[in-house]
## 1
Amino acid sequence: MNSIIQPFMIGSEIYRQSSFGINHPLAIPRVSTVLDMTKALGWCDLGEYRTAPCAKPKLLQQFHSPNYITALQSIEYSQEVTAVERKIYNIGTLSNPVFSEMFQRPATSVGSSVLAAELVACGGRAYSLGGGLHHGMATHANGFCFLNDLVFAIRRLRSLGIQRVAYVDLDAHHCDGVEVAFESDNDLLIVSTHEALRWPYSGKLKDNSQDKRVNIPLPKACNDDEFLLIVDQVILPVIQRFAPEALLIQGGADALCDDPLSRMCLSNNVLWDTFTNLLELSDKVVLTGGGGYNPWAVARLWTGFWAIMCGRQLPSELNAPASSILRNLHWARKSKPEESVFQYFHDVPNKGIIRSEIQELLDYLKRVHLL
């Protein structure tokens, strides 16, 4: 294991005990599975676990509108939403349903990411497992995100004297909520890799701005070699030049193969390699969760992120207890994955040719960002 500052993992049992509903993409267990996997692998002694606090309305109203926070609490209590509230706050929809912890769960995500920011302020690494709600808007819910913990994490870093922050979003969907919240902020570099022509249809190539916005809309079926080319020739050089005081990474898992909400085709290897390289760019790093709707893919990727944060070598084979946890997962979309998913940590690498559209994207980004 590398000589590194002891990292922190932040989680909560609220993610195990709550659900968006059986037909929602977030019906699958994610945070709870990662917590169980790290215990099964014997990795708990490598870091210090912290229970995420539930953020209070007073804090939440520093970004979200007071009327929205009040409505969110009221609807959670009554479990009823009026037609007017549905229209104003985008609650009670297929994407943002009414459920029993619809305020407490995202408020815990905010508390988790704020705590992570506090833990790394003097140097270190923290993993906010339930964070990554990058679509949340100030006045309404958006894309499964009732609140936006990432906004609060950035604001908390700023309040602790860390002004220059780089935010890297690895999710298959563009981070529209974060971008809108910091539209005129010149001390925040936002880097987003996302699938082109995918909801929320923001993060377009024309919206790139040197040392401020790096929007990378990738074509469907993006493979490992194509993604790594972009990382090596654009993402890492841009962040190095920006020289952030802290790094915030949204580690969404929905760009992996076999995720139902994207058509990208990355293996977990390429995201682990990217994360490893990003860790070298700052001594203050916050990692959050994010998208990811295939339970087996999310569990392996996010558990692997924790191993990398701890400086641990990822084993090639899963031990029996960890394998058993994966075998006991259920997903309405697919009965079981290939047997190798239960045996090995690493996906089979998805190597491929560099397509012309990737080369054209790369050339454009290098021109705009003077690389």
## 2
Amino acid sequence: MRVLVVGSGAREHALCWSLAASPLVKTVFCAPGNAGIARDAELVPIAADAVDELVVYTRSERIDLVVVGPERPLVLGLVDRLADAGIRAIGPTAAAARLEGSKAFTKALCARHGIPTAAFRVFEASERAAARTHVVAQPMPVVVKADGLAAGKGVTVAATVEEALAAVDAAFDGAFGEAGARIVIEEFLEGVEASLFALCDGQDALVLGTAQDHKRAFDGDRGPNTGGMGACSPAPPLTPALVERAMAEIVRPTLAAMASEGAPFRGILYAGLMIGRTGPRLVEYNVRMGDPECQVVLPRLMSDLGQLLLGAADGVLRRMSARFYPRHTLGVVLATRGYPGPVERGSELRGLEAAEACEDVLLFHAATRREGGRWVADGGRVLTVVGSGASLAEARARAYAAVDKIDWPEGFCRRDIGARALDASADRSGNG
């Protein structure tokens, strides 16, 4: 089987790494990929959102399966176009991708079908005054979200009315482009946040794993929201009983709801959950693997990823199962200083080989390139360093031991990834 992975980050590196190990997969291609991914896949110089070019390429190169990593090509309808060309793909159609592309759509779906989530109101840009009035009437904290895709940065958990009003104005003033032309203002959920990943074929779903991530840029969950600064798997709050409850009350009802409304969901459904006193509630959906969650979930997967994805594409998941290594994984993201704001590219990373030589450690590249035999940074989030161990503490120690082998003064990372999972007193977070 010839497989094309679409995307260029550490998530796509993890997908390529896992698929390259599948006996069913003859060749892995990645469009556009990065220098690190080139060790596990053949790079294709086509942008992830260049839908027309990707369709032409898959037909000309006789690609058997396309695995779409990021959300943008899904929302743009890449899977629809591939289906029209007779090419199998892992990912939802544009209609089903609205589960991530529009938070207002997902909230309305939950309301129609009784799926547990936070209370909410939706406001258009023309309703700024009404949105501000609504905020003033809410108990604090309150959550303000851009409706559309904002690269993980369109959410504000406002502790005060002033912060909430500023978030409303920022969205309507264009801080998130078109994504903020509509906003969702919702109830703050008390509890512990965790993520559940399910592989879906339109009717049935298999659990692919769970994870707990760290979105804030700096230690102690301070600083701006980012695409993610680290994660661990399995997610400590999600016991097997809670996973099954989330599947029964949230994921499977969502699949049934989407099918009943004419947009069956096929692909990887990422449920952001808040685990509170009354059980799990949905924070929001993503319609692909998370980043950096993918980098810690896939190394725990014992089953053949290629076989599972083929089963989802062919609609036979009910006859399949997923098995996992009884291990813990923890990933630390290394980013260029200044992230999530503007960053300078081209600084050299030294010591990657020494880090990768550490016991039970993997390096997944997000934004690197080779320049004169050197590894250099080529973006904001640059690497995810993943440690594995019999316990979360062991996985964490191995990940940070490898991080300490990397010499990169222009970069930074959080030093407390996994700390809240190891600290029983850390039992409260916000639905961001």
